[in-house]
Amino acid sequence: MFLLSAALTLAVAARARADSRTITFETPTYTTGSIDGQDGWGGQTPPGVPVNPSIDQGVSNAAGMAHGGTQAFRMSSFFTSGSFGDMPFSPSLADRAGEPGSIDGGFAGGTLMPRFTSTVFFKSATAGAPIPTWSSAPTAATAPG
User: Fold this and answer.
1) At 98, is the pLDDT very low, low, confident or very high (cuts 50, 70, 90)?
2) Are 110 and 9 in contact (CB under 8 A)?
3) Read out DSSP for 65-129?
4) What DSSP designation does 6 have?
């Protein structure tokens, strides 16, 4: 089981940052329990489909889980369904990132940006796991929609 920190940051970058969002998983925006339906989180195909209730996931305020603050999003890899559409999807940004000519597929619209950048903090909730403390995973990619 991996935990996403209390500071999941999403940003779209080009010459100037046109759109960004910081998600802290803190109250009052987020409450403990399933992330489904909270501040734009949910399943993906089509937008508005709920997260599969068999997936062990949610916002937690358990001691030691948050990277900063008091709450974190946690998700277990115990259950898999063979699809991605029923997994938790974060809220879209106003502007999308992708290659020229890409379509938004009903998700983010706005200005098409050439780059998507994010940083996610995570750690294992299993004692003795290979990632016992907080690690960050910055990513940068050109991504459609």
Assistant:
1) confident
2) no
3) --SSSS-EEEE-SS---S-STTS-BPPPPSEEE-STT---TTS-EEEEES-EEEEEEEEESSTT-
4) S
Rounded to 5 degrees, what are φ and ψ at 11?
Answer: -145, 145
Angle in degrees, CA 114, 117, 121, rounded to 5:
165
pLDDT band with cut points at 50, 70 and 90 for residue 140: low
What are the sequence ranges of the domains in the chain?
1-128
47 token code pair: 């937008």
Please give the span between the terminal C-alpha atoms of the chain, in angstroms, as a whole number: 28
Higher model confidence: residue 59 or residue 117? 59
The residue among 68, 63, 54 whose CA lies nearest residue 25 is 68
Cα gap 120→10, rounded to integer Å:
9
Q: Which structure tokens are listed for 1?
A: 């089981």
Question: Contact, 67 vs 134, CB < 8 A?
Answer: yes
Residue 31 is encoded by which pair of tokens?
């409450």
Q: What is the pLDDT of residues 34-60, one digit of tens each?
A: 999 999 898 876 667 889 999 999 999
Global pTM value:
0.71
